[in-house]
Amino acid sequence: MKDIGNYKLSKVRDALGRLDQALGRLETAAQSASTSAPLKAELDALTQNHAALKKTAGQVAARLDAAIDRLSTQLKTS
Question: Hey, where are the domains in the chain?
Answer without folding.
Answer: 2-77
